[in-house]
Each structure stands twice: as structure tokens, then as C-alpha cells.
Amino acid sequence: MRLSVILCTYNRRNLVLSALASLRRQTLPYDQFEVIVVDNGSVDGTLEAVRAYVNAGPQPGCGGEQHWQVRCLSEAQNGLAYARTTGLAAAVGEIVVFLDDDALADPHFLERLLQAYEETGADAIGGHVELRWEAPRPHWLSEDMLELLGAFAPASERIRLNKPDNAPSIAADDVITLPLSDEATPCAPAGVPDGFICFSSCCFSVKTVALRRVGTFASFLSKRQHLPTNLEIYDLCHRLHIAGYQIWYDPKAVVTHRVPAARLKRAFFTGRAYWQGRSEMLMQYASHPQEEVAGKQSLSASGRVLLAEARVIAHLALLYRPLLRIAGRTSNERLQAAMEQARHWGRAGQYLQHLEHAPLDVTKVAVLLVHSSEPENAAGSALLTEALRQHEVSCTTASAEIPLSWLWRHRARDGRSIGIVHLYQPGMFNLSYRQRQRFWFRLWQARRWGIRVVMTDTGGWWQSERGLHALSRRSFERRLLHSSDRVLAFTRQPEQLYPDKKLRRRVRCLFHPGFRGYYSPPTVRALAHQQLGLPRNAAFVYLCLAHQHTGHELLSLIEAFSLLTASQPLARPCLPGPQLLLAGTIQDNRLSSRIIKRAAKHPAIYLSLRTLTQEDVPLYLGAADAIVLPHFALAPAGTLETAMLALSYERIIIAPDLPRFRGMLPPRASLLYNPDNQESLVQALRHASAHSYHLSEKEASALDATTGWSQYAHRLLKIYQQVLQEG
User: Fold this and answer.
1) Is the pLDDT confidence value at 618 over 80?
2) Rg of the chain over CA atoms, in angstroms?
3) Percent of the chain that is helix, strand, coil (3-state, to 5)
4) What is the DSSP letter of 289?
5) Which end of the chain is more exposed for a tag (fewer CB within 10 A), N or C?
6) Nearest 5 degrees, angle CA 566-CA 567-CA 570?
């Protein structure tokens, strides 16, 4: 099957039957194309009439099969983008052709369109659109306004619709000027250079592979009931250009677009101008949702935008339009001025609506990702944010706080939840008592406004700490666990981490992605040893990230390492034995001096007690042979993130046999010890020096940061959608 013609309709029974009749008269053999009619919830009997027409009996075709292939589908969710997506899902042709229900295809339309694909190698082709007047053309309707009614003829011969090289991106404060027509989008926004041309919405075609690769139509930019925006074709062409696909125009592929009498009135053109203005603001919001920082917007910046729009509106209404009337200028010029005024009214109105409430259909999910401000724990939240944005999720980030402005703009609308607050490892939030109370108030307000709460529980050093400071963290984290709609955990044994059955029903266990490719490659071993002051020919280097552990755990590791070196004779006395490197800040200040003294007495223990940055990771992992996780026998102790980092760098992992690690690490790369028995840790340290671990091709692919976090975000998106549906 070469072509799949998708014909979407809504309450236009007579028009869609005429469009079907024009497709039935095509000169292209019937076995070369199929027709898919998608009814978008019509209530005038459209679907029944179409089925009756299709089943009326065969008519003679021009070669090939005598029976044309027509399927009738129904899409209940109102919106042209939804209907087209439904048709695309059912299409089997190499090329999908989209035709409006008020358009009539020339008998040679499909034949010439297919010929153009074969001769040009195009990935998308737009056809020539002529107008069919159903009422006398008004005298004030000039040639330059015909595009607003759907006419599309950018050239008299076949041309490629190129996007110029080095096209600048659209800035958030650019003034966008988009076409007023709901049928054609021949222009580009300001900020995109001249030459960017889109094909007509009522007649265009795209190769199926290309369309599915760049993504389908944006529902919030598409025409819907009571919302006549129609910028999804511009958005599609923009994405096709960015992906490097070729877009062509062929004047021989002709369709005729109807112009009813209702559209030949001034009110229609001013109405289109108003919705153009609203569409421009929607486009700006959709292009830059990720540039919001916690949903905050400067009041002065908002005031400047609204003041600029008010000045233009006042200038047009009080000065320019009266002067045109006094000067006796043409009706066309006065109409253009009225349209410009309506456009700015639309811009101002939509901007005010953004301040009051985020657009419901900009994305299916809007997420506020609340994460720790600690640089040592920034990798996971940064990778998750990027992966969510690649899945077209409006993901805003905040550092250990919940902004009230974001909650207000993403509160539930019409009983439907649209916002999610995702708390990423909240035990890391270093909050004072007052800050915690403020956090709880914002979380309570979020629930009152219909916003759902999701929490990622990855564990941390506070699970093993004995001090009051860690107690407040554990209490804070425990309350958040019970207040969340979903808890995301990296474990295969949730029953051991969450004994409460009610809580466990809300737990979803996922696999922790890797970090391969996110950090730089490991520093060469000899150079890393030189920079860290380690012996050049050290037999084996154990690395412990001090900021992931309590002071007592670090002391326990030092004791176990001392027992190891005391009981392990050197095979070659001229070479230095195993070394222990403690890197990162010590969480317990009361024990830091004791740790330093114990380490100073042992010549094979090296300290680097400073805050680790992303640039430090390749250095320490390049110097190490194994990573040690010295936890005590507490079920919630430990964090899998450090182990996944070690795997990504092909390092041996020495971890306790606890729920967060049990069954989550490959046996040939890990040694699990009994956290109740220090001798077990000593034995694990001893056996680690005899291990060597190298990633297989499959394991390296599974630990890739880009693909791994993308797959994780895809699974997480399904959880988000389930939570929103429950709300």
C-alpha cells in the first residue's frame, strides 16, 4: 500500500461525503491507496452516512482493483490532532495524506502526489490549494488576504520548502506573528528567518516513518471545539526541518477548498486575528516550559509584557484606526488595522490566563521535581529532569521547596488533576524546623488544590545515623512516604523496607538507571594516583564516598581495613599493599576529628574530605579498584545510586546484604557481606582484590545514561498518568 488518505470530520456530513466522492474518482488505482475516515464525535449522523456511502456498491476505477479500500473510525476526544493521530495509528501506507472534510481533491491529485515523491525523494509534500467561492467575493477582500481562507500557492512550479541555515531559535520574549488562517500556515514566527514555509493544513502528506519519528501533532495547538487554534502544522514542519527531512511543494497536486458565505464577513477575519494572538502566546509557552525555574515569573516582567500590549492596543484604537477613517482609506486597510488590534487583545488575554492557570493541554503531565541542593547528589535529579523533558513532560525544578506560584497555576481544573509534585530523595533536604513547617503547608495546599504527590525513596546516610539531626530527617521522610500517592523505590524486596501494608500498596519498584556516558571517562590510573597522592604501584585501592555514610560506618570501615592489612602479608614486600581512599565530606562533625586521627595512624589510608563535584568523579573512580559501602544491619540503610555509579565505571562493589542491594547487583561485579559481622566485611575486602570486572556489550548498553534514564522516564510517565487518572 503506497498511500493512506486520512479524512477527519466533525458534524459535516454533507461536506465529508463530497470529499469522499472526489477521492472515489481518483485516477490512481484503488490498490495503491486506502481511505481512513475519522469521525471526531459528530452528533449529526456523519459516521452512519459515511458507512452507508462506502457500502453503496463498487464504482468503476481506473485500473487495479475495482473496490476501493475505506475504513471508518471514531475518536471520542474532541480535537483535530487526536483524530489525525487515530487515523495515523491505523494507516498502513508508506505515505499518509491528510485532507480536510471541506476540500475536494482533483481526480489526478493522488497520482501526481505519488509521482512527486518518486521524482524528488521528498519526505513531505504539500499540495496546491484553490478556493471555491460559495458566495460572491466581497470587494474589500484583496489578494493578499486569500491565504486566510485557505489558498496556498507559494510558487508556480515544484519547489523545496527550505528552512535557511543558521536559523535562530525563538526567544521567550519574541513577538510571534503567525498566519490568521485556520487552513494555511505559510509564514513563520518572528525570530525564524524568511523562507520558512509550511504547507497548507487542508492538504499535506508525510512519509509515515518520518512522521512517527519526529512525533505526531500537538493537541494544544490544534483546532478543537470552542478553541479554533490551528498551529500544529507549523509545529510539525518545524520539527521536520530540525530533523533534516525534505519538504516540497507540488502545484500539480491540486485540491479545492470551500469558502462558505459565513467566512466572507469582517467578523470572521477579526475573530481569526484574536485567536492568532492567543495562539502566539500558546506557542511561546509550549516552546519554553522547561525554562521556568520553579514556575516563578517576575511581576515586573509580566507587567512589562502586558503594558507593551496595552500600548499597542491603545495606539490602534485611539489613534491609528480613527486616522484611517478620517483619511478615507480603503475598507481593506481599516480591516487590517482592526485585525491587528484583535490580535493584540488575544495575546494579552492569553497571557493573563497563563498567569492565572497553566494551559490544560500543553502537555499531558506537568511535574514539579523537588530535589536536594547538595551538589554531591545532583546527578540523578538532573538526568531525570532531562529525560522527562525529552518525553514532552513540562518538568520544572525546585531546590528543596514547593513554590506557591507553581501550585496555583497547576491546580486541578474542572475536577481534573494536571499537576504532580515529585519529591526526589527528600531525606537529603537540609531543612530547618521552620522550613519543614513551610514545606508541609505547601504540600497540604497542593493536595487541597488537586495536585498529586510522588516520592522517590533511594535511602541515605540518615537511615543509620544515631543523632537527633538524623532523627528529624527520618521523621520528615517517613511522613512524606505516608503522604505520597506513589512511592518509587529501587529494590526487589519492598516488604522488608515498607512493613506497612497500606504504604506498600502505593510502592512501585523500578530498576535504577546507570551513569555511563554522563560523567567523563575515568582518569588514567597512574595520573589519578599522582594527583591524589596514592602510591604509584599500589596493589589495590578501595574507595569509600564519605558523604554517603555516617561517622560510625566510616570508623567501622577503617577498623575492618586495619584488620585486613594486619592479617594480609605482602606477596612482594617492595610493593605497597592495599590502600583505602575516603573521599567527600563527613556528615557527623562530632566524629570527624576521631576519623582523621584514626586515618592518620594508618599509612595506607588517604583522606580527601571536601565536597565532590561532577568533575571529581572520573578522578576518584580512575584511582579506585572497588567501591566499599560500609553499612550496619539496618533494613533501610544504603543507596543504590553509588553502586550503579561503580558499575558504570566497571568497578567492584562491596555492599551489605540488605534489601536495597540484594538481587539488584550482578554477582560477578559485587561482593555482599553480612552487616552484622565485621569479619564478613574483612573477608569481602580480601576477596575483592582477586576479582576483575569488565562490562559486556549488553551490560554497557543497559548502563548507558541516555537510554537508561529515557526508559526510566517512560515507565515513570505511565505511573504519572495513572496517578492523575485516580485524582
Assistant:
1) yes
2) 32
3) 45, 15, 40
4) G
5) N
6) 85
Q: Rounded CA gap, 74 and 89, in Å?
A: 12
CB neighbours of 497 closer than 8 A, spacing ≥ 6? 457, 489, 491, 635, 636, 659, 660
DSSP β-ladder status, 247-259 and 203-207 = unpaired
For residue 517, what is the enclosing H or E element?
none
Residue appearing with cell numbers 470529499: 19
State the Cα angle at 45 between 43 and 48, rounded to 5°.
135
Would you state the cell numbers that stand for residue 135, as one nine-digit string? 458566495
The single residue listed with the C-alpha cell 474542572 is 414
CA distance 711 to 707: 6
**Model pLDDT for residues 194-251, shown as the tens digit of each residue:** 445 678 888 999 999 999 888 878 777 778 777 777 778 888 888 888 888 999 999 9
β-bridge mates for residue 367, sequence order: 395, 420
- The whole-angstrom separation of Cα 618 and Cα 528 is 9
Give the count of beta carbons closer than 10 Å to the beta carbon of residue 172.
12
**Alpha carbon distances (Å) from 187 to 191, 203, 219, 254:** 12, 16, 20, 20
C-alpha pair distances (Å), 100 with each of 6, 103, 275, 680: 9, 5, 20, 73
Q: Give the integer Cα–Cα distance in Å for 507 and 652.
A: 30
Residues in the chain: 727
* Beta-bridge partner residues of 99: 7, 203
| Mean pLDDT taken over the chain | 86
Beta bridge partner(s), residue 487: 455, 507
CA–CA dist 61, 585 (Å, integer): 79
Report in angstroms the alpha-carbon separations of 566 from 48, 65, 162, 292, 578.
88, 88, 73, 57, 11
Strand partners, 541: 579
Strand partners, 586: none
What does the block give as the cell for 153? Answer: 500557492
By the 8 A CB rule, do 70 and 37 touch?
A: yes
Question: What's the rounded Cα separation, in Å, for the pair 113 and 204?
Answer: 10
Dist. CA 108–CA 256, nearest whole Å: 13
**pLDDT at 188 (0 to 100):** 41
Cβ atoms of residues 204 and 105 within 8 Å: no
Question: What span, in angstroms and rounded, lies between the C-alpha atoms of 7 and 104?
Answer: 11
Answer for the pair 387, 379: CB distance below 8 angstroms, yes or no. Answer: no
Q: How far is CA 421 from CA 115, 139, 353, 357, 629, in A?
A: 52, 56, 22, 16, 31
Categorize the per-residue pLDDT at 26 as very low, low, confident or very high, splitting at 50, 70 and 90.
very high
Predicted structure pTM score:
0.66
pLDDT score of 167:
38
> Secondary structure of 444-507 in the HEC alphabet?
HHHHHCCCEEEEEECCCHHHCCCCHHHHHHHHHHHHHHHHCCEEEECCCCHHHHCCCHHHHCCE
Closest residue by Cα to residue 284 from 271, 297, 272, 294 = 297
**How distant, in Å, are the alpha carbons of 98, 420, 449, 478, 726 from that of 482?**
50, 16, 19, 7, 17
Rounded CA-CA distance 639/458 in Å is: 6
